[in-house]
């Protein structure tokens, strides 16, 4: 998701696309050297491979690296260790998928709003998806991710639109703090609706509590297959977003003057962010703070070029999520703490620091 294609909505007139690219990606004080970005990304990929090995090897039963490799390459091996490794493979794959999607979704939201506090959880997008999923479970009888993904997308989209409308007051672009407050209010309202639907239905309450906390345990490949098209569409849209976000970072007037269709660009990028967040929520529940922490950590290394921010987010997002999941398995072994809880413990202090830091007033 490096965003190497021309900016979305750039007018097809001579020199316009080149002008947008040159201005949006011109070296500046926040731009890291290309070698640092490339070698750093390679190191992050190595760390991600190590996190995948830890994810399939560590749990209530720890499996040595040699046995992990044997279990993955030799189907005839049927030891307890081999079965433990194989049962954790879907969980690891889901962690990769959800971590990358939430991180990219957060980076896209921060880019189109130029709001450093934007995140699918903070802006109420995850809460909107969760509320619609619960309504589908209670009143329509839906019982799998492939069935209620459409409701998750609808809920996420409506929540995002409502937060933007409330945060901006219907006029222009909202400030970062107003948008975050609108998201918090919207999340509270949607969570109350969710609880109101659940309370009279004790048979749903226990299973939903586990899903609501956000977790990747119990992952199954058949559930991922039904939702995969939504991830793919969101990923394709994100690929074409990096250069357009660089243009938006110059300001709406400058971007429009360079030929960018600002409204259409924001709509397409918002669709990518909502699809990725909704698909992740449908599979793993509302996991927060991944989309907040990862883009900020990445920008500290690669600078402000959104093409690199998106590329790094694809790697650093699942790295963070898998490490958090492994930590949740270890601290209360043999039981697990769901990764959504671990991410909340990590992310809440980061959110407070960002709110108090005036340097993050706007991207």
Distance between the termini: 20 Å
Strand tally is: 0
The CATH topology name reads ABC transporter involved in vitamin B12 uptake, BtuC
User: Biggest sheet, open or closed, and with what strands and sense?
Assistant: none
Helix segment tally: 15
Estimate percent helicity: over 70%
Order of helices and strands: HHHHHHHHHHHHHHH
Number of domains: 1
Poorly predicted sequence stretches spanning 5 or more consecutive residues: 1-29
Report what the structure shows.
The protein is mainly alpha-helical. It has a single domain, classed as ABC transporter involved in vitamin B12 uptake, BtuC (Orthogonal Bundle), CATH 1.10.3470.10. The chain contains 15 helices and no strands. The chain has helices at 16-24, 34-57, 65-73, 80-113, 125-140, 145-168, 176-198, 202-213, 221-239, 242-248, 252-257, 262-284, 290-302, 306-330, 339-356. Helix 4 (80-113) runs antiparallel to helix 12, helix 5 crosses helix 6 (145-168) and helix 10 (242-248) crosses helix 14. The two termini are 20 Å apart. Residues 1-29 have low confidence and may be disordered. Residues 1-32 are annotated as: Disordered. Residues 16-26 have a biased composition (Low complexity).
């Amino acid at each position: 998701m490096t965003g190497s294609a021309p900016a979305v909505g750039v007018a097809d007139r001579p020199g316009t696309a080149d002008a947008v690219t040159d201005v949006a990606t011109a070296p500046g004080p926040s731009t890291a050297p290309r070698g640092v970005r490339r070698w750093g990304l390679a190191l992050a990929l190595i760390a991600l491979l190590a996190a995948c090995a830890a994810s399939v090897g560590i749990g209530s039963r720890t499996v040595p690296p040699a046995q992990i490799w044997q279990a993955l390459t030799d189907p005839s091996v049927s030891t307890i260790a081999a079965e433990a490794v194989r049962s954790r493979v879907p969980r690891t794959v889901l962690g990769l998928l959800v971590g990358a999607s939430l991180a990219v979704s957060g980076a896209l939201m921060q880019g189109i709003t130029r709001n450093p506090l934007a995140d699918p959880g903070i802006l109420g997008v995850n809460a909107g998806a969760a509320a619609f999923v619960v309504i589908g479970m209670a009143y329509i009888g839906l019982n799998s991710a492939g069935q209620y993904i459409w409701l998750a997308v609808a809920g996420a989209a409506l929540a995002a639109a409502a937060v933007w409308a409330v945060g901006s007051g219907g006029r222009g672009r909202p400030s970062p703090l107003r948008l975050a407050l609108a998201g918090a209010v919207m999340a509270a309202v949607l969570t109350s609706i969710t609880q109101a639907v659940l309370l009279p239905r004790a048979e749903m309450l226990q299973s939903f509590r586990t899903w609501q906390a956000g977790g990747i345990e119990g992952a199954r490949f058949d559930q991922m297959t039904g939702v995969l098209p939504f991830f793919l569409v969101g990923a394709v849209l994100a690929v074409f977003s990096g250069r357009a976000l660089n243009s938006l970072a110059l300001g709406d007037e400058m971007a429009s003057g360079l030929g960018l269709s600002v409204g259409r660009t924001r709509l397409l990028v918002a669709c990518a962010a909502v699809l990725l967040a909704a698909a992740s929520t449908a599979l793993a529940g509302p996991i927060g703070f991944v989309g907040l922490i990862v883009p900020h950590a990445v920008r500290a290394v690669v600078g402000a070029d959104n093409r690199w921010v998106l590329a790094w987010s694809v790697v650093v997002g699942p790295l963070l999520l898998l490490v958090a999941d492994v930590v949740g398995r270890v601290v209360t072994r043999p039981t697990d703490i769901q990764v959504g809880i671990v991410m909340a413990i990590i992310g809440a202090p980061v959110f407070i620091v960002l709110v108090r830091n005036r340097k993050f007033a706007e991207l």
